[in-house]
Predict the 3D structure of the following.
Amino acid sequence: MIENMGQINIKVVPNASRNEVILEEDGSLKIRVTAKATDGKANKAVIEILADHFGVKKNKVSILKGEKARGKVVELSD
């Protein structure tokens, strides 16, 4: 379990062939999701994937910035 990681900048790739979290060479996270970027489906998938990846409940992951953009700022709380 993590303790208050704070804010994380991520890049989201919607409509991907599989769900995965990729650590880029520059240290940023890229999240690939199979969901399309319509009706908030990709955002929901991002929250689920990050919660699973970091071992926290979904309600501990929130999107602070970038609801309608590929670049997002998410917050993980304890």
